[in-house]
Amino acid sequence: MRLTAAEARRRLAAARVAYLATVREDGRPHVVPIVFAVDGDVVYSVADPKPKDGPDLLRFRNIRANPSVSLLVDDYDEAWERLWWVRVDGSASVVEAGAERELTIRLLKAKYAQYATWTEPFGAAMVLRIERWASWALAD
Amino acid sequence: MRLTAAEARRRLAAARVAYLATVREDGRPHVVPIVFAVDGDVVYSVADPKPKDGPDLLRFRNIRANPSVSLLVDDYDEAWERLWWVRVDGSASVVEAGAERELTIRLLKAKYAQYATWTEPFGAAMVLRIERWASWALAD
Fold first, then answer.
1. Is B103 inside a domain boundary?
2. Which of A1, A11, A28, A131 would best serve as a mutation to test chain B binding (most B beta carbons within 10 A)?
3. Residue range of the domain that includes B126
4. pTM score, two decimals?
5. Which domain CATH number covers A124?
6. What is the mean pLDDT of residues A47-62?
7. Which end of chain A is more exposed for a tag (fewer CB within 10 A), N or C?
């Protein structure tokens, strides 16, 4: 069954990690875990100061070529009757600088205490405008 | 940094849930959580007897049209220095019947005790031949 719209929204916003699927320029899919924040029908993420190697930011190259993305949150539980997921599909953009990137950083710092102690500069933001919601759960 | 090949393989096989990205016929990405088993360089999954609504099996329609898939496992941890992920890319096929589907069901029942008590028939299998490995972790 589907979650109610309000419950899907609540679970998406509360999730600590999401799985972002994009399409590579050659048409193959790509998926990576991200931290993120939600405000209304927009999902914000940022290339953060965590050390990572270059290929991780393939997601930004993909989005520049094909803005369609799919973002999933779930909560795996060995009691399968408690499984659920929420997925949002939409159009993403990479924001290198400016007010929308600053908002992204504020929202992420508000959600993740881990960012508070870090002083390295953030990278570009990813801003995802949600166009469709999907969800699944056995129990609401 | 990357995990060693052996460690990436160990973590993929041990993970309880994975995130499968496919590409829809219209070129947009799709991502869904799956349970799965690994044997060598092959990932097996099956449309299982869990109740679910139709859209979940969109993944099979996508694979029939475009066999390229990307599969991710991770372990989110609030201590970000412990974050890691393993991703495999490859070519998938949908197997409706026969020995490879029977092998899939055996591997899944061996890995997930949840399947043991269920008697409903399984659906089609998804068989993913791994072509590329990627991984990321701060600490090995």
1. yes
2. A28
3. 5-135
4. 0.93
5. 2.30.110.10
6. 69
7. C
